[in-house]
Structures are given as C-alpha cells and as structure tokens.
C-alpha cells in the first residue's frame, strides 16, 4: 500500500521526468528545477490532470550567501513557490535557482497564477530578484527612493539612510544613518542567594 506522499512523488516523476530533482523530508515534497525549465515545470504542475495544482499559496526569494555558515558554493539566489492542489489535497514546494548572482532573474509565473503578481514584486523589492515577463515589476514595501534590497544578507542592518520629519522645512527629509552599530549582550543579574535553598 502506498502512502499519499509516495503517490504524489510518483505523479511528479511521471509528469516532470528527469529534469526535476524530487525529494521528501518531514512529510513535505520539494521539487528543484533549473531556471530554464521553471515555466515549463510550473505549467505542467497546474495542467497535468494527475497533479492539478490550481493554487499558488506563496512565492518568496532566498539569499543563500551565508547558508551553512558560509560553506554553500551554489548559486546565491533562489525563488521558492508553494503550491496547493485542492482536488488532490496535497502540497508541493518548488525551488529554482537564479543562474546569475549579479543579476538574479527567472521568468514570471503571473501568466500561470495571477496571484504571483504581488509575491514577485515583494521578492524583487526585498531581494532584487527580477521576474522576466512581469507586467508591473516595481517596489511594493520600501519607499520610492529606497536604495538596495533589505533582505539580502549583505545589506546593513541599520540601512544606508534614515528619514525623519523636519519641522523647519515642514517635510520629510532623508539623511545618512545616525545610529551607531552596537552589540547587544544580555546581562543576567541574579540575587546572591539564587539557586540555594533557604
């Protein structure tokens, strides 16, 4: 007797063939595909009758530059998509790596799932991942004049600029960050009798 997870893995292997690396851990199935096969794979996941992943639940970017404490030697950026098949009651995670670290780009899946629109904009805004074919790729969370992508591992925690309201100019102004970096080391203060019986 096969489990639901084994049935899903078999259906994925039949639909996607050798071009996809399929693995399962902790009750979840992950499919890793090359960027060149990304759109074809996503189309197959939605349109194959045995799979029928009708809903895109989530899409996000990932920066692997410090993964494994710096031991990662693969591509820096990836796009991870979570899909749901309501008809079959199963989920799958799809990961594709951007082939170019300097200009990370994959094709947009907004033509397959319209819900990907804002998710792709978020990944562009926070990670700088470009989605080829996206109709309106612009920032969604940061300010219009924001420089950089704040979820990249090399982005400074304090940022580059800060904004504040200037009462003299009666407007919001941007200025270099005035926050000095510091290390927060928690201090534990205990009573002298801590841990002893009274």
Alpha carbon gyration radius: 23 Å
Biggest sheet, open or closed, and with what strands and sense?
A: 5 strands, mixed
Structural classification: alpha/beta
| Tally of alpha and pi helices | 3
Helix content: 10-25%
Spatial strand order of the main sheet: 1-2-5-4-3
**Distance N to C terminus:** 62 Å
How much of the sequence is in beta strands? 25-35%
- Uncertain stretches of 5 or more adjacent residues: none
What does this entry look like structurally?
The protein is extended, with a radius of gyration of 23 Å. The strands form three sheets. The protein has a five-stranded mixed beta sheet with strand order 1-2-5-4-3. A two-stranded parallel ribbon has the order 6-7. The protein starts with a helix and ends in a 22-residue tail after the last strand. With 198 residues, it is an alpha/beta fold. It contains three helices and nine strands. The longest helix has 13 residues, at 4-16. InterPro entries: NADH_DH_suC, NADH_quin_OxRdtase_su_C/D-like, NADH_UbQ_OxRdtase_30kDa_su, NADH_UbQ_OxRdtase_CS. Its main location: membrane.
């Amino acid at each position: 007797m096969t489990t639901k997870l084994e049935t899903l893995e078999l259906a994925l292997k039949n639909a996607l063939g050798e071009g996809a690396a399929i693995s399962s851990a902790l009750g979840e199935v992950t499919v890793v595909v090359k960027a060149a096969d990304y759109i074809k794979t996503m189309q197959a996941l939605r349109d194959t009758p045995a799979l029928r992943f009708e809903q895109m639940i989530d899409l996000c970017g990932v920066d692997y530059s410090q993964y494994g404490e710096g031991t990662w030697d693969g591509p820096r950026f990836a796009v991870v998509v979570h899909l749901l098949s309501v008809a079959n009651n199963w989920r799958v995670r799809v990961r594709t790596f951007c082939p170019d670290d300097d200009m990370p780009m994959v094709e947009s899946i907004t033509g397959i799932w319209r819900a990907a629109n804002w998710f792709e904009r978020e990944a562009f805004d926070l990670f700088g991942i470009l989605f080829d074919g996206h109709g309106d790729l612009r920032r969604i969370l940061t300010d219009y004049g924001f420089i950089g992508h704040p979820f990249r591992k090399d982005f400074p925690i304090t940022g580059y600029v800060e904004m504040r309201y200037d009462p003299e100019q009666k407007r919001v102004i941007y200025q270099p960050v005035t926050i000095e970096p510091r290390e927060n080391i928690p201090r534990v203060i205990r009573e002298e009798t801590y841990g002893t019986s009274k």
